[in-house]
Design goal:
Length: 262
Amino acid sequence: MKKEKKDQFIALCADDLDEARRLLPYAQRLSAAFHKGIILFTCSADGDQWVDLVECPHVVLRGEWSDAIEAMPVAFNVVLAIVACNPKAPRHSLAHPRQLLKSFRQSKVAYLAIPSAAGEWRSERVALTLDHQRESKEKLLWASYMARFCSSAIHVYHIPYTDPDFRNRLNNNIRYLDKIFSSLALSYELHPLQGGSQFAHPDLKALGEVECDLFISLVTDVRDRDVLDTLLPPPPLRLLRSSSATPILFLNQRDDLYIMCD
């Protein structure tokens, strides 16, 4: 395989030719915006029979998707993965929401889930939430990347807490957001999420109420889930099930995430 002369790459992850061709325009748009190369990855048994039909460098891997995904940033300098999401896909397909999240559970790079009903790539309006919990620096950095390289309008949503401790911690997160964006001369709009419980997951509420072209979500460590959480599907799975057409950029909550060098 001959790599493009790029320092970092976007991984296009697909199980078959149709999936790869559908995802390729998204990868191409982001490749042009971020100035990164593209590498097509597949772990399908028949990958050798179709990868040459996709016009980009490719790697056919043997083994589990989870192992391939964990190796991508170290072996191939991948900083972003793009993957299809389809609740109707076969249970063991990478595009199935449960399998997707399982495969990317240890991912050190951001992964963009493209729903089967998503249309042509757009990035005019990007949404994310802040709450009272510790926020990921990478989540805010990726919002800044979208503003810088894709000219996206960044909309930040939050629950208007009445609890003084929650409100104080939220304000600390907003100040951190403002510090990052001010240092890059970027702007954002802050919006309260009205109604509902203050203990509800803000991502689920925001994605159900706001219009956006891309939603950024932090996947919290499974160790942070409480007893009630274990009785319900995890928030990322509920997000994928409720997002009929909105691409979601997921970031795992971990200390060794790989980010863009720009």
